[in-house]
Design goal:
251 residues, alpha/beta, four-stranded antiparallel sheet, two-stranded parallel ribbon, 10 helices, 41% helix
Length: 251
């Protein structure tokens, strides 16, 4: 006959400790999985506008805006940031309807209706007048200081569709502007002699001239407007809207 081993008190105690240890591991693993799944992610509706924002070879957002936003949200506020690349008009619509959380742009009356605006700008940008290097009125263009000068000189500006700043600050003074799909189209029109000037951020304009290999044809003049105060704007439909005080403090 085989006898049944008798469990001692120590054996029972070891089994109890082992069971509690396994249960503890399971709870920890479940909690970690839950935390990872529930981790807050803020979405930035960005558009391809080098060197301020673009998608690098790995598909990750790069440029001045993403760098500043990651420093603000990921480093200061411990919130992961994700960039959604989309055309500019679509980016604004996504924030308006709540499909994305944030934009970086100039506050306008229309944008105030659907977004909260940071107290401080994320960055200030000056706009310079770009023209053909061989333009016969280069000296006069270089001395432009107001929309009235553009009208007085009978110049033909060109800019991209959706440039609200240009509409509100240049066209509103009676200047007739040609609107084209992109900044690239605008610069190519100037190079072809089909327009006189384009008013663009200095860094972005110089970058575009280099990209299009137009260094011998286009030039950035000393004439400038601005600065534009580019603010962080958060959709009123975003769950992060309630964190605006913390965001302002961190910014």
């Amino acid at each position: 006959m085989f006898s049944t081993p008798v469990s001692t008190g120590k054996d029972t105690e070891k089994k109890m400790i082992l069971r509690w240890f396994i249960l503890l591991l399971i709870c920890c693993a479940t909690a970690q999985t839950g935390n990872a799944a529930d981790k807050a992610i803020i979405t930035y509706a960005g558009t391809n506008w080098p060197p301020y924002c673009w998608s690098d070879s790995s598909g990750k957002s790069a440029g001045l805006y993403p760098d500043l936003l990651r420093a603000l949200f990921e480093e200061e506020l411990q919130v992961e940031m994700e960039t959604i690349f989309t055309p500019w008009k679509r980016a604004q619509l996504m924030v308006e309807v709540g499909d994305a959380d944030i934009l970086v742009t100039v506050p306008t009356a229309e944008r105030h209706q659907y977004a909260l605006v940071s107290q401080l700008p994320l960055v200030d940008i000056y706009l310079h007048v770009f023209t053909a290097a061989s333009h016969p009125r280069l000296a006069e263009i270089s001395s432009i200081s107001s929309p009235g000068d553009i009208q007085r000189l009978s110049l033909r500006p060109v800019t991209n569709i959706g440039n609200i700043w240009h509409q509100e600050n240049i066209d509103s003074h009676g200047v007739k502007t040609e609107y084209v799909p992109s900044e690239e189209n605008a610069f190519l029109m100037i190079a072809a002699g089909r327009a006189d000037i384009s008013i663009e951020p200095s860094i972005a304009g110089r970058h575009l001239i280099e990209k299009l290999d137009l260094g011998s044809m286009l030039t950035m003049t000393p004439a400038k407007f601005g600065p534009l105060h580019m603010h962080l704007m958060i959709s009123k439909k975003s769950p992060f809207a309630k964190e605006m005080d913390r965001i302002n403090h961190a910014l």
